[in-house]
Amino acid sequence: MTERTMDRAGTRPAIVTLEGVTKRFPGIVANDRIDLAIHAGEVHVLLGENGAGKSTLIGMLSGLQQPDAGRILVDGAEMAIRSPSHALSLGIGTVFQHNMLVPSLTVAENLALGGRWWQRPAIAELTQRVAAIAAPLGIEINLGARVSELSLGEQQQVEIVRALLRDSRLLILDEATSMLTPQGIAELGALMRRLVERGLAVVFITHKLAEAAEFGDRVSVLKLGRKVGEIPPERLRSLDQAALVEEIVAMMFGRQAGSAAVMIPPRAANDDALLEVRDLAVARTADAPGLDAISFTVGHGEILGIAGIDGNGQKQLAEALAGQRATAGGSVLLAGEALDGLDVGGRRRRGLRYLTDDRLAEGTVGTFPVSINYVLKQIGEPPFWRSGVERTGEIDARAAELTRLYDVRTPSIATPVGRLSGGNIQKVLIARELATGVRAVIFNKPTYGLDLSNTLATRERIREIASQGMAVLLISTDLEELLSMCHRIAVISQGRLAGTVRNEDSAGERVGRLMIGLAA
Amino acid sequence: MSQDALPAVGLDASAGRSSRRDLARRLAITVVPILVSLVIAGCVLLAVGVDPFAYYGFVVQRGLLSGLGLQQTLTRMAPLLFIAAGLIVAFRAGIWNLGGDGQFLLGAVTAAASAPLLVQVLPAWLALPIAFVIAATVAMLWSLLPALLRAYQGVNEIITTLMMSFLGVSLANVLVKLVFLDPSTTVPQTRTLPVPDRLPRLFETTVTSGLVFGVVAIVGVHLMMTRTAFGLKLRTVGANARAAVHAGLDVPVLVSAVFALSAGLIGLGGAIDVVGTQGNVRADWNPAYGLAVIPVVFLARMNGYAAIGFVFLLSVLSIGGESAARRLGVPQTFTLVLVSIVLITLAIAEYLDHRFDRARRV
Asked: Which of A42, A398, A489, B121 is deepest in the core (most CB within 10 A)?
């Protein structure tokens, strides 16, 4: 009723309306009677934990899935969104959380995909249009680069531009800001504002409440498949940011909690260096920057943050430490013992663990069951294998135990891990790496793409590991995250450490200066 | 505690139910397309003026129902099972070894060349295994170049193995005509292994004991791929090579091992065929089993047990087809036409099932 009055009062008409939409999967109700109206001229923020049903909802809006019950109205008329191309023709463009670009094609070729097949891709026109779209976003798109050569962050930027190229009336951004620089996020916010001012609708999914409060006109909160609350524009405008965040958190968790609560774990009494890296160098490759003279130490119970804009050698550093990437010089010591000659398995057995940022494409084998993914780095080792023969009982028992201890939400341990939500895949990885025998851990963007609850849980795990006296190297592009838990923060820029600062009051500003190339 | 346990049990039980339904569906989308393809192939036969019922009757009669035909069918299975085993290892590890024909023939020719000489100086129980080892080694060596190119340079093995296969088939021919030629015959062929020195036959039949080796090989490969750490490593490499690197697996070494195993098994198939059944290799002999078995392995979804069944079917078709070809004038290659029609209808069934599945889920 209030909705109707509001429409008359001047809110623009809904482009897409969901009425009682329900979607079931084996074992779970992913969406339970969701009502949602997406209006032109609004940034509609969709918030919820992993597994709350956001991805399913987006899947239905973008034509990947069909609802089991309820109906979807487009421009007021009931419409089954049959396929992704049908969604596009209705003006619904989506930027997915896991990128959907063809890695072997260039950026220009990817952007030209979906054009009419009998026409040559008009690259010149494309270049102009991309420039017109990308320039105000503050992102540089190298149309000639192969997608496989781009970092995850850069790939996501290309996807946003691609959705904008298709003249979408409704743009769905699924965790689109998580790989952007702070400035890029601000510019995306400004662009979303410009888009909605021209009458478009934007559905914006983010786990960063500050962004929701800053960019959103309307906020809907999902929890366990249900919509538990909505803050309409006029109420949103009347609240200040802090009050708004509090209200949203109350809706999401029924409790008051700040997302970036600063809690730096106390240092262990033993202050010796546990993980020491001396003059580490990695040769530059065609698609990745090299590393040059990287030296640092991480003490017992210390969290050393590595800040920097994505693609400055963070991944190379993590892989070189884990033994996955050949080094061109330097050495890595764990508790005074050189690891240089050891492979991945040897370093892991010594207690050096690496949690990759690419959970699906690198961390797990999506088609393998959860149980096998827990032991993926221990293939052939007892007690899970005896004389090379698999002992299913041992593996399953271990998997059941880890699933319980780390609260992994999965229909069963035989479920292919690729079917779980991002947060639960991350829990599988955390369980695999941290359950036993840890001394030093490298976290690469551990909370990328996770919702608030999983982000907080992951951060709590990291603090817990540090407070047990382990060394933690925390690579993150989220400065707030680093400031909330690190003892010291080093800044990586073009494969070199630009400097290291203690995490004190002015740390944020000093790290920021280092990131843009000024002295701290 | 019981509260925690209950839902998990419930979910597991439902998973069991759905997998049984899954099995029934799998069976349906395998059997129905085969029947459909028989009808389509029948239409093709009608079009060329052959009574399809007579043809199918002949195939079943000669390949399956007559005692001698069934024995021939079972004998034919021996080399095919080895090839299927070799392909399962490769395909499950994500390696598309399409060089089976070259590897098979080189294995056959080296076995044909070495076995008659070895049995003259060694007892048969020692001579034949040595011939097998030599055959397997030569086939492995033939896969070395594609293996190293793939493992260390990332060169697509589909192209390299196919090219090596053409070279291998020609080389096998050259070896028969120039090097291992039996001087006592006028037809170019290798020395013939005397019948008593060949692999023993099973019981009172003409079925070669190579069949037993073939079954052991394919069951062994199936168990290796599904139950052992080595098999899991290979499957990890096949399913997600980046995850394999991340997990610390030595991917190039594993890839090379896959090539060696695959080519070795296929080469053994050639040796088994020669030492068990053929006795020698004639010039220009190329049964092209390798390419015929590839669709069979796909039909079996790379499952070793299912592959035994499909290999049996292929053998019935090819033995029966050979008889029918002689009697009804249908070219022998019609067997391949039939197999390819089966493959296409199965692919269509798979596609329809997928569509249906999606439609059911919405």
From this structure: A489
Q: Give this prediction's pTM.
A: 0.73
The region of weakest confidence among A283-287, B122-126, B142-146 is: A283-287
Q: With respect to residue A266, please indicate whether it lies within any of the assigned structural domains.
A: no
- pLDDT, average across residues B292-318: 89
CB atoms B4 and A404 under 8 Å: yes
Buried b (16+ CB within 10 A) or exposed e, B90-101: bbbbbbbbbbbb
- DSSP β-ladder status, A329-334 and A14-25: unpaired
A-chain residues within 8 Å CB-CB of B239? 365-368
Q: Based on the domain organization, do A142 and A237 belong to the same domain?
A: yes
**Contacts of residue A412 in chain B, CB cutoff 8 Å?**
8, 11-12, 15
Q: Cβ contacts (< 8 Å) between B11 and chain A: which residues?
A: 27, 411-412
| Confidence band, pLDDT 50/70/90 cuts, at residue A132 | confident
Give A2's pLDDT tier (boundaries 50, 70, 90).
very low
Q: Which two tokens stand for residue B72?
A: 């021939």
Q: B18 to chain A: nearest residue by CA?
A: A26
Mean residue pLDDT of chain A comes to 83
A255 — pLDDT class (breaks 50, 70, 90): very low
For B281, the token pair is 């290799």
Question: DSSP readout, B265-319?
Answer: HHHHHHHHHIIIIISS-BTT----HHHHHHHHHHHTTT-HHHHHHHHHHHHHHHH
Q: Is the pLDDT of residue A9 over 50?
A: no
Assigned domain for A474 exists: yes
pLDDT in tens, B116-143: 999 999 988 899 999 999 999 999 999 9
CB–CB of B229 and A379 under 8 A? yes
Q: Do A213 and A293 belong together in one domain?
A: no
Closest-CA residue of chain B to A21: B362
**Taking CB atoms and an 8 Å limit, are A361 and B249 in contact across chains?**
no
What would the mean pLDDT of B33-43 be, rounded to a whole number? 91
Residues A247 and A285 in one domain: no
A152 and A69, same domain (yes or no): yes
- Residue B359 pLDDT: 66
Same domain, A104 and A211: yes
Residues of A in contact with B12 (CB under 8 A): 412, 414
User: Is residue A97 assigned to a domain?
Assistant: yes
User: Which of A345, A356, A367 lies nearest to residue B248, judging by beta carbons?
Assistant: A345
B contacts of A377 (beta carbons < 8 Å) = 247-248
CA atoms within 13 A on the CB side of A26: 18
Nearest CB partner across the interface for A412, out of B12, B242, B246: B12
Residue B18: its chain A contacts at CB < 8 A?
26
Of A224, A253, A282, the domain-final residue: A253
Structural domain range at position A344? 274-515
Using CB atoms, pick whichever of A66, A356, A379 lies closest to residue B233.
A379
- Residue range A351-410, pLDDT digits in tens: 999 999 888 889 999 899 999 999 999 999 988 999 999 999 999 999 999 999 998 988
Name, in order, each residue with C-beta under 8 angstroms of B231's C-beta and a sequence gap of 6 or more.
B92, B223, B224, B225
Number of domains in chain A: 2
Tell me, yes or no, whether A306 and A403 share the same domain.
yes
Q: What is the rounded distance in angstroms from the CA atom of residue B222 to the CA atom of residue B300?
A: 12
d(CA B131, CA B197): 12
Interface of B with A (CB under 8 A): 4, 8, 11-12, 14-15, 18, 227-230, 232-233, 235-236, 239-240, 242-243, 245-250, 361-362
Quick check: A385 and B239 CB within 8 A? no
Q: Which ipTM did the prediction report?
A: 0.82
Q: Report the CATH number at residue A141.
A: 3.40.50.300
Among residues A200, A219, A253, which one ends one of the domains? A253
| Same-domain check for residues A291 and A210 | no
What DSSP assignment string belongs to A19-72? EEEEEEETTEEEEEEEEEEEETT-EEEEEE-TTSSHHHHHHHHTTSS--SEEEE
Say yes or no to pLDDT of A192 above 50: yes
Name the residue of chain A whose CA is nearest to B358's CA: A65
Which residues of chain B have a CB within 8 Å of the CB of A401? none
Q: Is residue A374 part of a domain?
A: yes
How many residue contacts between A and B have a Cβ separation below 8 Å?
Answer: 83
Selecting from A65, A367, A414 the residue whose C-beta is nearest the C-beta of B362 gives A65
